[in-house]
Amino acid sequence: MPDHMHICDLGVFQRIIGNLLFGMVFDRMVPGADTKSRVQAAWYMIEREYVNLRISQRISGLTLSMFCNEKKIHGSQPSLRGVKAAETRWLLPAVVSAFEKLASDSDEHRLAVRCGRCACGYLDTMQNIEGHVPTPEEASDIRRFVYHLTMSYSALRWSSYQRGLVRWGLTPKFHFLCHLADMCSYSNPRSNWTYMDEDFMGIIKKLVKGCFAGTKFENAQVKTAVRWALAYELSCAFHDL
After folding, report:
1. CB-based burial of residue 141 (10 Å sphere; 0-12 exposed, 13-18 middle, 19+ buried)?
2. Helices (H), 7-135
3. CA-CA distance, 69 to 115, in Å (whole number)?
4. Neighbour-count burial of 200, counting CB atoms closer than 10 A to its CB (0-12 exposed, 13-18 middle, 19+ buried)
5. Which of 16, 29, 62, 144 has the greatest number of CB atoms lying within 10 Å of its CB?
6. Backbone angles phi, psi at 236, to 5 degrees
7. Taking 80 as the threshold, does the pLDDT of residue 239 lie above it?
8. How far apart are CA 195 and CA 122, in angstroms?
9. Residue 52, CA distances (Å) to 55, 56, 97, 200, 209 in order
10. pLDDT at residue 61 above 70?
11. Does residue 198 sit in helix, strand or coil?
12. How many domains does the chain fold into?
C-alpha cells in the first residue's frame, strides 16, 4: 500500500512548497532589496497565515537553504529541505495561502494556486475521513483533487521547460500519488501511513542510546531488549488498572 507520509509529506508537498517559496522570493512577489530580506518577508507572511489558519504545528523560521541550493540557485530544482514530515503537512496550507494573496492573473500563478489548493483539498479530505474506508464521495473528491494537482503541476513543469527554467521538477512520487488516490476507494490513507512506525523507531533509538552508557558493545542489544520488554509489561499492567 502506498504510504502518504513518504509520498506526500516527504515528497510531493515538499516540491510544491519549494516552488511556491522560490517564486515568492525570486520572482519578487514579496518586498525586499535583496534575497535575504525577501526570504524574511516571505516568512513573515507564512507566520501570519499560521495564525489565520490556527495551525499549531509550525516550523520556527525560514532560510534560503530550506528550499533551494544556495550554490546553484537557478540550476537545481526547488524543494523543501530539513523539515519534518508533519511540519511539512501543516506548512503547506500556510504557504499556499500566502502565495495566493500575492499571485497575479498570469497563467503560471493561476496554475500554481490551483496546484496548491488541490493539494490542500486532498489533505483536508484525507484528514476528515472517519474509519478505515472512505465514503464514495470522499474517494471521488480525493481522486479529483489529485487529478487536478498533477495536471496543474505538469503544466507548470512544461511551461518552465519551455522558458528554460529549472522549476517544478517531476519525480516518481507524483506517479505514486495517483495510485494512492485510486486506492482510496477501499482504504483510508491514514490507516496505512507510517507515522507510528517512525515514532517507534525514534523511541527505540533513544532507548538504545541510553543502554550503551557503561555497557559493552556486545551486551547492549540484550540490555535494550530487556528494557523494552520491561517497559511493555509495565504499560500493559497500568493499562489494566
Report:
1. buried
2. 13-26, 35-52, 85-102, 107-127
3. 23
4. exposed
5. 16
6. -65, -40
7. no
8. 18
9. 8, 11, 10, 33, 40
10. yes
11. helix
12. 2
Contact 134, 142 (CB under 8 A): yes
pLDDT per residue as tens digits for the range 178-224: 999 999 888 888 887 776 666 566 666 676 677 767 777 777 777 77
pTM beyond 0.90: the answer is no
**116 and 132 both lie in a single domain:** yes
Q: Cβ neighbours of residue 149 under 8 Å, at least 6 residues apart?
A: 12, 115, 118, 119, 122, 177
Phi, psi of 87 (to 5 degrees): -65, -35
Predicted local distance difference test score (pLDDT) of residue 89: 94
C-alpha cell at 61: 523560521
Residue (of 145, 144, 123, 141) closest to 190 by Cα position = 123
Same domain? 172 vs 60: yes
Q: What is the pLDDT of residue 1?
A: 64
- Grid coordinates representing 117? 489548493
* Same domain (yes/no): 63, 145: yes
Q: Are residues 186 and 212 in the same domain?
A: no
Domain containing residue 142: 4-192
- Of 175, 192, 209, the one marking the end of a domain is 192
Neighbours of 172 (CB within 10 A): 9
Distance CA 65, CA 73 (A): 9
Sequence-separated (6 or more) residues with CB below 8 Å from residue 122: 8, 142, 145, 146, 149, 181
